[in-house]
Predict the structure.
Amino acid sequence: MDQAQTLRNIIKFQNANMVSNARVIAVTSGKGGVGKSNVSINLAIQFVKMGKKVIILDADFGLANIEVMFGVIPRYNLSDIMYKGKDIKDIITKGPLDIGFISGGSGIAKLVNLDREQIKRLVNKMSDLESMCDIIIIDTGAGIADSVMEFLVASPETIVVTTPEPTSITDSYALLKSLSMHSQFRPKDCKIKMIANKVESEKEGEMLHEKLNLVVSKFLGIDIEYLGIIPQDSNVTKAVMKQSPVSINYPNSPSTKAFENISNKLLDVEGDVAVYKRGIRGYLKNVFAKML
């Protein structure tokens, strides 16, 4: 038996013999600048307000959007687990409302270069997140880069953030097309959902979803669940400038109310154990599927 097969068996055995506690949600977009990281942060805040413990993994390496929006500089990042022997608790930085976040840093970019022992160590240490939180939000990079696809194809639940801009719609389609063509993608194992961001009305958001879902279902065989809208709201820009989330700075703003509604909708489906309770170990098992 070769080393890769041995490692596959180790992860499979560990995955089968632990109860997964954490729900994993990937948040992505077809292009930058559509508010993806803002969505990740504000959903996390709303989940915490509902009594959930949340950790965000910033997998958008090189941009550090989460730490900038939180106004907090992390001491360590993901690479410190692999190259400096840190434990998972050491690399979790605390943001507002005690939300934890992990900076990907250069660690995400180096995933493809990990050897057998490094992968084993990373999977084991990241699995400790299961006992630390209820929900893990993966804030991916934007676009169709291979690194983004590996995170999306592993996710049991992916939220695509789209705006009414024509380029955002076409890029969202390109993202889902690339995902559908990935050799590891299984539609039955992944729920694709959409948030319409920066829209003027509920009607505009519904039309945006209908437009994208029509072509995606027809040509890609994927159905997109509609989560709702985040309206145009100047308070979002003000909050970004203050490096503090709109859900905290402006709790009564239209956008905050929208984040509350979407969070409630997401938690309403939490009972689907088969889809949502694969946990971070199962998620990482799929992320590394091509490498093992």
